[in-house]
Each structure stands twice: as structure tokens, then as C-alpha cells.
Amino acid sequence: MKVALKKKWCYKSDGSIKNSTCSDYTVIYIIIRGQEVLGLVVIHLRQRGRHMNKLLKTLGTATLVAGLATGCGMMGGKTKDAGHGHDYRTFLTGGDIKYGQIGDSYTSDLVMYLAGNQFMVMEDLIKDFQSKHPEIKSIYVETIPPGQILKGQILKQGQINGQNTSMTPDLYASVRDAHLKKLNKKGKMDDGYIIYTHNKLELMVAKGNPKGIKGPEDLGRDDIVQSHPNPLTEGIFKFYGSEMLKDLKLHEKVTGGKECRGCWAVEGKTWFTKRHHRETPHRIENGMADVGIVWTTEVKEVLDEGRPLEGVKIPAPYNKEDKVGYAIGILKEAKNKANAQKYLDYLGTDAAQNIYAGYGFIKASAADLEKKSF
Q: Would you state the torsion angle of the CA atoms of residues 114, 350, 240, 146, taken in this order, to the nearest 10 degrees?
């Protein structure tokens, strides 16, 4: 029997109710099958093009039910799952999005493996790009830690959910050019790259900041549980978070000198994630952690979604805003080099830069966007 959504409430954080268009409201839907109520799904709709008719068109039955636990949040602010499955998307002209179609990494008109922390930007960005290039009918986008992509999917055959994924995407992007330079030394990259946006570090905490965390120095406290990106595959920690902790003389205390992934670095005190942009918010809002190092854009995203989380600013130079630059380039064995170049050209446009800025990223300069040799 078909599963359906039935709208029940549409409200804002100030308690006001709206029963018509809900373009900037939070909507509570009942998921029903016949006369059976399967549960509730809470969806925050921002005005940036995330309209319900598109969502309903996109989500199939299985994804819709999975949405109870992953992409949309639950009543009371807790989630059952961190939502890793939403980091593999195929965007089609006309606005449809498919999730978890790993085989599309071999067949799409453009295939991009990107640093995961820009996951929130991609829907608006790809929609705008495809409106300018309708001939590129399918775009496969993966948004996971760049080190994981490099080590586990480009330099060797990787699998996602038991299915092989392409070792030759058209474009690869990381939060630092070092990853691209490593691929170039191994003969995997084409003849250059660009820097297309910037970011900075911030701390994420539960709403109301119950532990009273004031800044990065508090990561040395003994009364908090931490959730940080792992130093093996996540560039945010490998290149920047670990450097910040060393600057503060806190690295040994916070990490115990351990390097691992999906593990306790310090038992009961510091957890290293597999994919921090999904796991750290999930762990904090479910009471499994008090604080985590994230990108400032990820704090903005959870605030926009209405999740029970907030940020604590990290002052310069500890936030590394003077060093963080997102690098992207075409792979030597890319199957769709012409389409990849169209996307690189698009990233330099005002439209693309404004979309990134709308999500809290820092715009690239003209010098950033000039092609750089390895």
C-alpha cells in the first residue's frame, strides 16, 4: 500500500501558525499508509528554493520513511541516524534528485567527489548550474571526507554499501591543495586546479550551551565530552583542527596522541568521527557529546534547519581562516572533461560565489580563481 504525507501543522519558532504556503516555515507531516500512522516527519523549509512539491517529487517511499531517521529530523530534536546516505546524490535536469545510486558514478554526464562539508550548498548550486547547462542532464555528487575519497576511492577501488564506485571522477575537491598535489604526483590529476571558496573553524554545542563553553581553550576541560573529525581522512582536522590544538598546547590532552577513525581517541572523552559533518551534530543533539570542532558553515546549516544546536566562535588566528582554501581540479582519466571545465568556469561566476556565500562560505578572490599549476 502506498505511503503518503499528510500536512498537519506549519509553524514558526515564535509559535505562529500558518495554513497556506510554508516557504519559510517548519512543517510537521504525518506519514500514513492507509489508515495506519507510521510516524511524524519535521521539515524546515528555507526560502532558498527548497519547496515541498520538489521534495515530494524527489522522495520515493523508502527514502520518505528513512527520512524519519535521517535527513529531516525528529520530534524533540533527536535523530536516530546521522544521515550518511544523503551524501551520494544524482541531480537530474528538471530538479529530480536520486539518493544512493552509486552506479551513477560511472554513467553520469558529470561526476564530482567533493569535500563533504559543502553538502548543504549542492542542491542550489547544481540547480543553478544545470539551468545554464541543460545539456548536462545528470550530475553525480559525492560529499564525504576528502581524505577518504583520495585513499579509498581514487587510489584504490572503493565500495559504498557493497557496490563499487568509480575510481575516475571528473572532478575532485578538498579543503587544501595538498590532497590534489598528492594525486598529481601519482599521475592522477590534470594540469592544474583553482581555489573556489574559503571557510573557518567553529565549535558546535547544544542549544543554550549548557556546558558554558566560551572558546577553544575550554577543550582542555575535564568535564566535557568531545566529538571531532578524525585525523586520518578528514581534512578539517588533519590540516586545521590539529594545528589549532597544537597552537593552544592542547593536542596531546584532547587526542591522547591517537590517530584513528570512528573510535575513542581518549576513552569516554574524545570521539573521532568517520564523517563529522553528519556525526558531530548527531552526537551532540543526542547527548553523546558536548562540543565538536566543525566548519562555521555547518553551524549555520544546523541553525537554518532549526536543530537544537548552536555555535561558539573561534577567534583568529585559531580559526585558520587565513589558511583554509577549497581546491578543485580535473582528473587525468576523467570521462567528461568538457563538462568538468564548464563547472570550473561556473564556480568563478557571481552566481556560484553568491550561493556559497549564502551558506556562510567566504567568497574566492579573482587570484584564487586563476588556474594554478602543480
A: 10
